[in-house]
Write a structure and sequence with these properties.
single chain; rod-shaped
């Protein structure tokens, strides 16, 4: 196998067509430089250069080798650069999982911020039910996930990145739409539109628990996995819902959002990943998320 260093020396002399200048260019003395070029010719069994006391010229084999050697060296340099950037968290592929319940508000902003700050990383998004997220991380199907808390996964690293209040969401013609705020008890008796528990068990149980503590068990008339679909069902009159405040960003003018008074419950967003995996891209993503939250995105 030809030593890449010999190819680099050969390209230098092929460019300069002068052994002294080529040796000075690569920073070694001329005698060992000339020895390396002769060793390369011996390895190939070919004459690459014709030389006399006055001139150095490339043979046809030398001209062909120069072109291919330059390409090989450039590809080697790109490979080394890519590996180093991957080790620093600036290149590679990061598989990001998320549940539909977390795909509103901050998720899109975090993803956009990460792609802007680390353009060399390919971000693969994997949308799946919340119950599947922890198993997918353990099976190494995804590297990191953004999910709603509570997220029961004691064997994973889970870091809180954002929390916000809940709001009541209703059609614009709902009797409570004229109120500045609402109490949870005021929502009793209304049909609810909510996501299936499998989509985000923690968030689902939090919302149901809020209602039960207010004295009623919500009657779920329709289910949809994505918040956009839930809002469409609310607008169509299938019921009302309780959602994280950020969900109001996708509400149409035909939907009214009202703050809920009398409750300290918060919708929490966390990032989760395996503890035993050393992946610089995970730390880079965590840093971007942390900086995004601190700057309020």
């Amino acid at each position: 196998m030809i030593d890449i260093r010999k190819l680099q020396l050969f390209v230098a002399v092929a460019d300069e067509l002068h052994f002294g200048r080529a040796a000075a260019r690569v920073g070694i003395a001329q005698p060992p430089f000339s020895q390396q070029i002769r060793a390369l010719e011996d390895e190939l069994g070919l004459k690459l250069l014709t030389r006399n006391s006055r001139n150095v010229a490339l043979t046809s084999a030398g001209m062909d080798l120069r072109t291919r050697a330059i390409d090989l060296i450039e590809r080697r340099d790109r490979l080394v650069d890519h590996v180093r950037r991957t080790a620093n968290g600036d290149a590679g592929t990061l598989r990001l999982g998320f549940a539909a319940s977390s795909a509103v508000g901050r998720l899109s902003k975090i993803v956009r911020r990460f792609r802007e700050e680390v353009p060399g990383v390919t971000l693969e998004l994997d949308d799946r039910d919340g119950i599947d997220v922890s198993a997918a991380i353990r099976r190494c199907e995804i590297d990191i996930a953004i999910v709603r808390y509570p997220f029961e996964a004691p064997d994973l690293d889970v870091v809180l990145i954002h929390e916000e209040p809940f709001i009541a969401v209703m059609p614009a013609n709902h009797p409570l739409a004229s109120c500045a705020t609402v109490c949870l008890a005021d929502l009793a008796g209304n049909p609810f539109v909510l996501f299936p528990r499998a989509a985000s068990p923690g968030l689902h149980d939090t919302i149901i628990g809020m209602c039960i503590r207010a004295g009623f068990s919500p009657q779920i008339s329709q289910e949809a996995s994505a918040w956009l679909s839930i809002m469409g069902l609310v607008e169509s009159g299938f019921g009302i819902t309780i959602a994280p405040k950020s969900a109001q960003s996708i509400c149409s003018p035909a939907i009214i959002c009202r703050a809920i008074k009398g409750t300290d419950d918060r919708a929490r967003l966390v990032i989760a990943n395996r503890r035993d995996v050393s992946n610089p891209l995970i730390k880079r993503f965590q840093d971007v998320v942390r900086n995004s939250v601190q700057s309020d995105i």
